[in-house]
Specification:
elongated; mainly alpha
């Protein structure tokens, strides 16, 4: 890589990276995860994959896309409108819970020359991945409302996209998905046990 190319890459990384005051630096012991990120980007970080990953990032930002799907479900399934709206609110609540955990843990996002940051992030906080949390919560809740198992279809692409974009450690997305599964499961159980709820056809 030429000096000019290296400088341009460093400048782009600086523009994309937001570092909050009080956030600790990246820890050296995460070198195994950094190496994993670099391998993933090298293996599948082609332009079509990166474009798809950026699209998923935009869709899942602040859980807006998943909330919109819940609202759409409420419009399409009028008999269970309350369930869909409650489910959508539960997904947003899961996202908010992940933000709260982030502000307690304050792990910094990956920063290393071997990892390219390919999308902007609203903060430098990394653990857990809020995209993974809200996506998993949405998949669990909406699976209950549609009667179809949406988890294998929705969750893996979002988790991998966060790694391809270089904005999360693998443990960030795994922890976020676990948190989303727990919270989504609680919302789904509450909806299932609600008196007078109509079953999915």
């Amino acid at each position: 890589m030429t000096t000019a190319a290296a400088s341009d890459r460093a400048a782009r990384r600086a523009r994309l990276r937001v570092v909050e005051p009080g956030t600790p630096p990246a820890e050296p012991e995460r070198s195994v995860e950094i190496a994993a990120l670099a391998r993933i980007q090298h293996a599948i970080g082609r332009k079509p994959v990166v474009r798809a990953a950026r699209g998923l990032s935009l869709f899942g930002e602040h859980s807006a896309g998943w909330f919109a799907l819940g609202v759409l479900g409420a419009v399409a399934d009028r008999g269970r409108r309350r369930d869909w709206l409650a489910g959508a609110a539960g997904v947003v609540a899961a996202h908010a819970a992940s933000i709260a955990v982030k502000r307690v843990v304050r792990r910094q996002r990956p920063i290393d020359e071997s990892v390219e940051v390919l999308v902007e992030t609203p903060s430098s906080l990394s653990f857990p991945s809020s995209h993974a949390t809200s996506t998993t919560a949405a998949a669990v809740v909406y699976s209950g409302l549609t009667g179809r198992n949406l988890v294998p279809v929705l969750v893996p692409p979002m988790l991998v996209s966060r790694l391809v974009l270089g904005v999360h450690y693998p443990t960030d997305v795994l922890a976020g998905s676990a948190l989303g599964a727990v919270l989504g499961g609680l919302v789904r159980r509450r909806l299932r046990n609600r008196p007078g709820r109509r079953r999915a056809r």
